[in-house]
Amino acid sequence: QVQLVESGGGSVEAGGSLRLSCAASGVSFSARCMRWFRQAPGKEREGVASIGRTGATNYADSVKGRFTISKDNIENTLYLQMNSLKPEDTGVYSCAAAYKYSGCTSTPEYWGQGTQVTVSS
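^ that's the sequence the OP posted. Answer follows.
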């Protein structure tokens, strides 16, 4: 059974930092692209960052230079380090696992429940 469990969300002031974690079970990071998404109130969900099977990363323009995605293949944990946070980064952040051996732009197969991030000005 696949489980993706996010943690690390919270409330911070603008300019602050948070580190999100996604503990995964039942999926192999070496076989799947892993991604972070976020959904702000009243907006569509958007992809924030992805990390491919071999470690290649990609970021949305809005977070480039501020967010860093990483993974621990042994602990099967995905991370998102978020620095210089802005109010517009507020939303529910979810991790997701792509289908096995598919690209990072494909619709994910598995989703976590999400963790709330709130950035105040």
